[in-house]
Amino acid sequence: MFVSRSMTRKVITVGPQVNIFEAQELMAQNQIRHLPVVDESGRLLGIVTDRDIRSALPYKFFKKPPGKEEKKNFAQLKINEIMTRKPITISPSHTIQDALLIIQDSKVGALPVVDEDRKLKGIISVRDLLRAFTNVLGIGEPGTLLCILVEEKVGQLKKIVDAITEENISFGSVLVARYWEKDKRAVFPYLLTQNVAHVKEKLTNMGFTLLDPMEWYLDQLPKNE
Amino acid sequence: MSNRTGFLYDERYRQHLTGNYHPEVPDRLPSVYKGIADAGLLEKLTLIEATPADLKWVETVHDRNYIKRFATACAAGNSIFDSPDNQMCTVSYEVALLAVGGVLEATRLVMEGNLDNAFCAVRPPGHHAEVDKAMGFCYFNNVAIAARYIQKEWGIERVGIVDFDVHHGNGTQHIFERDPTVFYYSIHQHPTFAYPGTGREFERGQDAGYGFTKNSPVLPGNGDAAYQKLLQRDLFPAFADFKPEVILVSAGFDAHVDDNMSDIELTTEGFTWIIERIVEMAAWYSKGRLISVLEGGYSLRRLPELARNHVEVLLKG
What we know:
The complex is a heterodimer.
Chain A: H1 3-6, H2 20-30, E1 34-38, E2 44-49, H3 50-56, H4 60-63, H5 68-75, H6 79-82, E3 84-85, H7 96-106, E4 110-114, E5 120-125, H8 126-137, E6 144-145, E7 148-151, H9 156-166, E8 171-178, E9 184-191, H10 197-205, E10 209-210
Antiparallel strand pairs in A: 1-2, 2-3, 4-5, 6-9, 7-9, 7-10, 8-9
Chain B: E1 5-8, H1 28-38, E2 45-48, H2 55-58, H3 64-75, E3 80-81, E4 83-87, H4 92-112, E5 117-120, H5 142-154, E6 159-163, H6 170-176, E7 182-189, E8 213-218, H7 224-242, E9 246-251, H8 268-285, E10 290-294, H9 303-316
Parallel strand pairs in B: 1-2, 1-5, 5-10, 6-7, 6-9, 7-8, 9-10
Antiparallel strand pairs in B: 3-4
């Protein structure tokens, strides 16, 4: 659950004096969009994104890559002139939940990971977080997802887990999500089996509502009213 | 009715026992048989008897150690293999070999030209079985082994597989995903809502096999209309390009509205439409050569009519 476990450790970095085209090429080669800028001792000075670079170059370069002469005019442009200084960072001992909330809040695509001396330890991107949550959702393992609507009161989950366990079925994951009806929760057990017909019938007989799959949702959209 | 159609049925397929509360029960096969027999179709069909498959064919798909592991687990009296889904008994290994052997025999008869097509009512099913792993009630991948047999024994280059079981045939896909000579097409309930969780639209094959795998996931609650639209959009043009020389069908009947294994609502007529179109494609591209192999389908009430209609379409051509 810690950033140190989910971050990318082998970070591609640049020094502050690197020119803008070199940085651009480095990102393209490595298929990355964030380039931390560090000093000789590995301390973080700032960060540059592919977007920062594009904004610093004239629009015409998009349509037609610059020729040698044109490039010359911009070659003096160094990274430290366009980088974001003091970017939002996170420490290796923060959790991926922290990272998720910070990224959601700050609208950045990646956070440099630094220790107390501001030395760069890694980078954690939206991509790394997605990988972690893909794993949490158990998408990679063969199984069947159910969605059960329960009243929000103590002991509901236990009943469900017990009923499923009695059938000798293992869990890949269990998610609990808010439901749009007040005092209701949607429970999503991911069962590592193809054989769910009997357990579905059992849960229905126990009085639980199995939600129509087309009504499932994990995400509560912000209310507009 | 003009086709010479084979029908593989063997009482011994009932000997693979799966314990309590398991949908893949021996009674599925008598249901299939009854539907065909009661409609008076048996006399129009060539009955095919199963013999155990030569291991050399099983080994064209499955890992040798896996085959050994399965044989040993079975002989030791283990009641499950690789996952609690795969319930078995002491003769399940032999029955699984008999399923492969029966399908290969049906395939041989079609390839020799003695039959135009065939329907193989086998158990256990096969399309979830991976190279080295039993999954989803499947041990040996019957259809995948038949595809390899067709290529190696009969010098055929391009084999097309159509899988309309409501679950994605992960095993078959993975076995051929790097292979441009076997086209795997599957239509199934969307993997977010159904076992095994693979078969998304963007799974198109790997490396040289890219473009020779195609998946049409169907959202819960859909039925005939969605299937017809997707098959027209995804399968027909793909096979028109690929021109399979033989077509193999993973015929699962669990997408039926009355089958509680899924949330797909195909009607009996919907299934007829699908197999009619596949038989048509076999006539266009494959000299009619088509071998259909039973996968899932758990509604004992609906299996008789589904099997009957399936075979009627094969006979009619």
